[in-house]
Write a structure and sequence with these properties.
The chain is α/β, with parallel strands linked by helices and 395 residues long. The protein folds into three domains: 104 residues, 3-Layer(aba) Sandwich (Rossmann fold); 153 residues, Putative Large Serine Recombinase, Chain B, Domain 2 (Hect, E3 ligase catalytic domain fold, Alpha-Beta Complex); 118 residues, no CATH class. Helices cover 44% and strands 17% of the residues. The chain contains 13 helices and 13 strands. The protein has a four-stranded parallel β-sheet, with helices on both faces. Strand 12 and strand 13 form a beta hairpin. The protein is globular and about 75 Å long. Bound molecules: zinc ion. Zinc ion binds next to loops.
Length: 395
C-alpha cells in the first residue's frame, strides 16, 4: 500500500518590508516549514504577503489563498500565529468558515492546541456557557429589581465599558480605537446570527487563549446601549433611551437589530425550571473536595437537549464557588455506581449497584444511594472520589 503524504500550504505576512526580526516572512516561512515537516506533510504551496497590513483580507496572496482553499488544493494550512492571518474578528470568523467548508485544518505554530482540540473545546464551551448564561440571567434580573427600588431615576456612574476610556478634561467617554474595533466586530457577528457563546469562542481562539471572553461578558456588551451613544440603562424599551455626550461605536440601528435578536433568542430558549429533587440522585451527598461545600444540582438546556449537572455553586462562608468545578450528572452517577460495584468491601452492595442499578429510575437510584451512602467527596482536579458508606446500616 502506498503512503500518501497529506498536502499542506503555508501563509506568511509582515506589515513592514524590511523587517529583519523574527517576524520577517523568511523567518515565519522557515518555522512553518519545520512544523509541516514534523507532521510529514508535503508543502505544495506558500503564500507571502509582504508589506501588507492585517486590516482587511484584500491582500493579493490572501485572496489567492482563499481561492485555493475553496478549490480544496490542500488539507492543512500552517501559519506562525493567528494575527498573521487577520486581526479582525469578523475576518477571522469568515476564514474559519471557509476553512471548515473545505475541510482545511489550520495549524498555528504559536498555539499548538489550536487545531486539535478546537472542535471539542467548542462544544463543551457551549454547554458550559449556556448553563452559566441562565444562572446569570436570573442573577441579573434580581440585581435589576433591587437597583430599581433603591435608586429610582438616579444615574449610577458605574464602570467604564470595554471599548472606552474616560476623558477627565471633557468628562466624557472616549472610544479606544483597538477595543472599539473589536466591539464593532462583536455587534457585526451578532447581527449575522452568531450567539454570544460563539462570538466569545471565536475571540478567544483568535487570541490563542490570552483573553477570556465568555457568553456573559458578550451579552453585557451586546445589550449595553452606551455603545450606540446612549446613556447607560437597564430598560429594554428603546424609546426610553437618552442620548449621551460621548461618541457611539455602533449605530443605533445596528444596536437595535442586535437587541431584537437577543430578545428573540431568549424567548426561544426554554424557561428555567427548578430541578426536581428526585432527578438528582446525588443531591445532598456530593461534596466539592476543594472547598468542603455541597455541590448543587443544575439543569441547562441547549436547543432541545437538557443537561443535568453537579456544580460547586455555593457562596457559603462568604467565599465564591470554585471556578470550573462542574460535572455532568449522568457521568458522575454512573461513575459512583461503578466505583461501588467494583469495591470488594461490600459484596452485597456490588450486585445492587451493577445489575439492579441499570434497571432503576432516577428516584429509585436516589433512594438506594441515600440508604447506604453518607457522603461523597469529589476532587475535580484529580477526578478522585472518596465514598463514605453508612457503615452501621451495612454491617
Ligand atoms: Zn468548591
Amino acid at each position: 500500500m502506498s503512503h500518501q503524504f497529506k498536502k499542506c500550504a503555508i501563509y506568511v505576512r509582515q506589515s513592514r518590508v524590511n523587517d529583519s526580526s523574527y517576524s520577517s516572512c523568511e523567518a515565519q516561512l522557515r518555522i512553518c516549514m519545520d512544523t509541516a515537516a514534523s507532521f510529514a506533510w508535503r508543502v505544495v504551496d506558500h503564500f507571502q504577503d509582504s508589506g501588507q497590513s492585517s486590516e482587511t483580507l484584500s491582500r493579493p496572496e490572501m485572496q489567492r489563498l482563499m481561492a485555493c482553499v475553496e478549490l480544496k488544493q490542500f488539507e492543512h494550512l500552517v501559519v506562525y500565529s493567528i494575527d498573521r492571518l487577520t486581526r479582525r474578528l469578523t475576518d477571522f470568523a469568515r476564514l474559519m468558515e471557509l476553512f471548515d467548508g473545505s475541510a482545511v485544518k489550520l495549524t498555528v505554530v504559536t498555539d499548538p492546541q489550536f487545531g486539535e482540540s478546537a472542535a471539542s473545546r467548542f462544544t463543551s464551551n457551549i454547554v458550559a456557557a449556556a448553563s452559566e448564561f441562565q444562572q446569570d440571567l436570573t442573577r441579573e434580573r434580581m440585581a435589576e429589581s433591587r437597583a430599581a427600588l433603591k435608586a429610582k431615576g438616579m444615574r449610577v456612574a458605574g464602570r467604564i465599558p470595554f471599548g472606552y476610556s474616560y476623558d477627565r478634561v471633557f468628562s466624557r467617554l472616549m472610544a479606544v480605537p483597538e477595543e472599539a474595533e473589536l466591539v464593532e466586530d462583536f455587534f457585526d457577528l451578532a447581527s449575522k446570527g452568531k450567539t454570544p457563546a460563539e462570538i466569545a469562542d471565536l475571540a478567544n481562539k483568535r487570541d490563542g487563549g490570552r483573553s477570556d471572553w465568555n457568553a456573559r461578558r458578550l451579552l453585557q456588551i451586546l445589550s449595553n446601549p452606551v455603545y450606540a451613544g446612549y446613556l447607560p440603562s437597564d430598560s429594554e424599551n428603546a424609546e426610553t433611551l437618552q442620548k449621551g455626550n460621548h461618541e457611539e461605536i455602533v449605530t443605533p440601528e445596528r444596536f437595535e437589530q442586535v437587541r431584537q435578536q437577543l430578545v428573540a433568542r431568549r424567548k426561544r430558549a426554554p424557561t428555567k425550571r427548578t430541578p426536581k429533587p428526585e432527578s438528582f440522585p446525588l443531591r445532598g451527598l456530593l461534596y466539592c473536595a476543594k472547598c468542603d461545600r455541597a455541590m448543587t444540582p443544575n439543569t441547562s438546556s441547549f436547543g432541545i437537549k437538557h443537561y443535568r449537572w453537579y456544580q460547586c455553586r455555593s457562596h457559603a462562608g462568604g467565599r465564591p464557588p470554585c471556578a470550573g468545578v462542574s460535572v455532568r450528572a449522568n457521568d458522575m452517577e454512573e461513575f459512583v455506581a461503578a466505583q461501588i460495584a467494583s469495591s470488594s468491601e461490600y459484596p452485597k452492595l456490588a450486585v445492587r449497584f451493577s445489575d439492579e442499578w441499570q434497571a432503576m429510575t432516577l428516584p429509585q437510584r436516589a433512594a438506594l444511594l441515600k440508604e447506604c451512602i453518607d457522603r461523597i467527596d469529589y476532587n475535580h482536579d484529580t477526578s478522585d472520589l472518596d465514598i463514605n458508606f453508612k457503615a452501621e446500616k451495612l454491617g
